[in-house]
Specification:
The protein is α+β, with helices and mostly antiparallel strands and about 190 residues long. It contains six helices and seven strands; from the N terminus they run H-E-E-E-H-H-E-E-H-E-H-E-H. The radius of gyration is 30 Å and the shape is elongated.
């Protein structure tokens, strides 16, 4: 390795610094193409976060939650520390609650099963789905039962009850392996 004098070292350092400064003076337009950030990740959204208190519906425990909303979009679910039942604790099912809204594989419309027992589904129009359901209920001649998981009292529970009354079926059968008391015991 050749001996480097102090003078040569300073010359090379000064030249390198000058080149670095001059490189920064050039416009980036010819090197960088700016694209709109339409589908920004949640952590990149600008704005002020709003928190809304609600009740988790992912299981019958009905834990208290707070939902972080940025620009009108829910981005995070946390347990509500002021809720008397769960005191800020929240299970994994509740944490995954946003998947109901944003999962790309969620069902977003009416679908038809290819054949009984098959995992092949194809999208159909809502009117076609409603007409098919109507025809099958009428063909059953009143031998219809609605079996569902437990529903928290409210819109869905009332809707199922009204539906079974309208078609002349007995009250819906509600069963859930994970009852509310089991959910509360998990959070203790």
């Amino acid at each position: 390795m050749p001996n480097i004098t102090r003078r040569n070292f300073l010359k090379v350092s000064a030249a390198g610094t000058a080149m670095a400064v001059l490189a920064g003076c050039d416009s980036d337009e010819r090197w960088v193409e700016l694209e709109p950030y339409v589908r920004a990740p949640d952590e990149q959204l600008a704005g002020v976060a709003s928190w809304y208190a609600s009740t988790c519906r992912m299981c019958p425990a009905a834990c208290g939650i707070v939902v972080r909303v940025m620009n009108g979009r829910a981005v995070k679910i946390e347990g509500n520390p002021e809720h008397p039942m769960n005191r800020g604790k929240h299970c994994a099912r509740g944490q995954a609650g946003l998947q109901l809204l944003y999962n790309p594989d969620r069902v977003t419309g009416a679908v038809r099963q290819a054949e009984r027992g098959s995992q092949d589904f194809s999208p159909i129009a809502w009117n076609e789905g409603i007409n098919t359901l109507y025809e099958r209920i009428n063909a059953a001649g009143g031998r219809v039962a609605v079996w569902t998981g437990s529903t928290t009292p409210g819109h869905l529970s009332d809707l199922l009850t009204r539906f079974t009354e309208a078609i002349g079926a007995p009250a819906p059968v509600r069963y859930d392996l994970f009852t509310g008391m089991n959910g509360y015991r998990v959070l203790e």
